[in-house]
């Protein structure tokens, strides 16, 4: 019978290795895992930055088994939560569940009634804001609060997912359990963002080099998009390897997927983006995981937390908006340590895409003036915003991202409370200036990050060295090839290819029922 520990217990290295073998079947820890777990078991808050594919999840999954209370894991994607729950249940870790907004109300109520029976609970930051869930969790013994992919606090918290910036308040509601924040890509500035957002200045840092010595880097500059398709079709014809192709446009991801399917029908290809139905996305993800698809044409919505070890090739059809995103996406390749490749197809004519995305993410000064005018008019009439978020966006003529950003700022500065508008002239004038200044700062930060990756693309020296210089002081010697600036040529690349190809008689659309057991009530669904 293995001992259950309370936070603050010292657990020896032999004990931890025994637990690791017993629960997960691993004989040794990977880099950083043991040190992080030891600090958690002794009740210390931890920020862990470990390379992609290094098994960050073991840090909290093993801790969850050993601690006497419940572990909460804040995870950014439903598909990631579902995937991790399935993997844990497959190794007989049964006391785990994923809570998400797609649960039917009756199912959610049933699950909430027995939350005390679980050791590990995955949940989105948005669902954690619901008072009903907060009230239930506050009555339970929470030992550990985990922010997985913690760079989302800095990368997404201001615009896309402002609920990430409210996590510290949730921790207080849960009686201040130990905090573990994990990331694979966190510069010193991002680390500061995480620490400030969680209000943990004394947090213990475990920062490890993030470069991957088995991935070669290649940048190929082209004049137009017309030159990209032949490069893709030739490369994907020559190699049968699991491949991700990243796009900044959903429509382009769909279009290129169809064109490649026509050009190389002997490769199994699908597209994936955030505009698709959740059930379709999960089906494609599962088929790719099971080697039933070779190539995924996707946006950044695909890949976070994907535990597939044999991805050999990551192609960027468009330039990512920042080096952090690029490193995260490239890091999905070669997790088994075998030779893998990152190929970026760069066209100067594509630069308008990330610039347009940056402009669209934040409201302009004119947008802000219009919003304040609308809010004053509403205050003088009903005093309340519509309860439907889409109606608010339409009324204020803002995108979903712009309204999320503004709602958080307006709540933070006491201008709205839920849907009630709170008017005080002097405060409104100050808040307008504060928000306008923040918009300028965020836009400038994003433009600087875009300029960093543009500079990297045009780098004449070693691409590997300059890719990681913002994150660490040195980098590992390449295990196989280095980069296109150090003499690497794709024509000389010899990756491990797929030899045992599974037959897929049905398209992914028609296999949904088989993959997902549609109609079966699954509590992790």
Automatic annotation (TrEMBL):
A Pfam entry, by short name: Helicase_C
Domain of life, source organism: Bacteria
Residue ranges constituting the Helicase ATP-binding domain according to the UniProt record: 37-204
Residues of the Helicase C-terminal domain: 231-379
One biological process term in Gene Ontology: DNA recombination
A GO MF label: ATP binding
Keywords of the record: ATP-binding, DNA-binding, Helicase, Hydrolase, Nucleotide-binding
GO cellular component: bacterial nucleoid; cytoplasm; replisome
Keyword DNA-binding included in the entry's annotation: yes
Name used for this protein in its record: ATP-dependent DNA helicase
Organism: Virgibacillus profundi
């Amino acid at each position: 019978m293995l001992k259950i520990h309370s936070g603050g217990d010292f657990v020896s290295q032999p004990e931890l290795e025994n637990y690791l073998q017993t629960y997960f079947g691993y004989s040794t820890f990977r880099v950083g895992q043991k040190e992080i777990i030891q600090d958690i078991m002794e009740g210390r808050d931890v920020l862990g930055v470990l390379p992609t594919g290094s098994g960050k999840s073991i840090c909290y999954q093993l801790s969850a088994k050993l601690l006497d209370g419940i572990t909460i894991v804040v995870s950014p994607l439903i598909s990631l939560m579902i995937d991790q729950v399935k993997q844990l249940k497959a190794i007989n870790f049964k006391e785990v569940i994923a809570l998400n907004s797609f649960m039917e109300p009756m199912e959610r109520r049933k699950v909430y009634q027995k939350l005390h029976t679980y050791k590990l609970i995955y949940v989105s930051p948005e669902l954690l804001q619901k008072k009903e869930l907060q009230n239930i969790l506050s009555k339970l013994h929470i030992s550990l609060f985990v922010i997985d992919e913690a760079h989302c606090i800095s990368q997404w918290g201001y615009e896309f997912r402002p609920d990430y910036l409210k996590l510290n308040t949730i921790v207080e509601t849960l009686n201040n359990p130990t905090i573990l924040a994990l990331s694979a890509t966190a510069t010193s500035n991002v680390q500061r963002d995480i620490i400030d957002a969680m209000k943990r200045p004394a947090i213990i840092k475990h920062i490890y080099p993030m470069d991957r010595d088995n991935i070669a880097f290649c940048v190929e500059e082209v004049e137009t998009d017309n030159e990209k398709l032949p490069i893709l079709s030739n490369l994907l014809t020559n190699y049968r390897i699991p491949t991700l192709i990243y796009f900044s446009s959903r429509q382009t991801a769909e279009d290129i997927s169809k064109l490649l399917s026509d050009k190389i029908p002997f490769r199994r290809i699908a597209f994936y983006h955030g505009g698709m139905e959740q059930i379709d996305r999960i089906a494609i993800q599962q088929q790719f995981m099971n080697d039933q698809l070779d190539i995924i044409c996707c946006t950044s919505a695909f890949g976070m937390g994907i535990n597939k070890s044999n991805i050999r090739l990551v192609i960027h059809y468009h330039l990512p908006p920042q080096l952090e995103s690029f490193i995260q996406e490239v890091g999905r390749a070669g997790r088994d340590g075998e030779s893998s490749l990152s190929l970026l197809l760069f066209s100067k004519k594509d630069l308008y895409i990330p610039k347009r995305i940056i402009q669209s993410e934040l409201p302009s000064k004119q947008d802000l003036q219009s919003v304040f005018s609308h809010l004053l008019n509403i205050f003088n009439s009903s005093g309340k915003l519509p309860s439907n978020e889409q109606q608010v966006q339409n009324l204020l003529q803002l995108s979903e991202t712009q309204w999320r950003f503004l709602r958080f700022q307006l709540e933070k500065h006491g201008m709205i409370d839920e849907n009630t508008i709170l008017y005080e002239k002097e405060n409104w004038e100050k808040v307008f200036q504060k928000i306008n200044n923040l918009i300028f700062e965020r836009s400038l930060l994003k433009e600087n990050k875009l300029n960093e990756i543009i500079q990297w693309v045009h780098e004449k020296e070693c691409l590997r060295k300059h890719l990681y210089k913002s994150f660490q002081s040195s980098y590992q010697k390449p295990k196989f090839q280095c980069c296109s600036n150090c003499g690497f040529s794709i024509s000389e690349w010899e990756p491990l290819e797929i030899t045992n190809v599974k037959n897929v008689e049905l398209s992914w659309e028609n296999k949904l029922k088989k993959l997902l057991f549609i109609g079966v009530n699954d509590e992790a669904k």
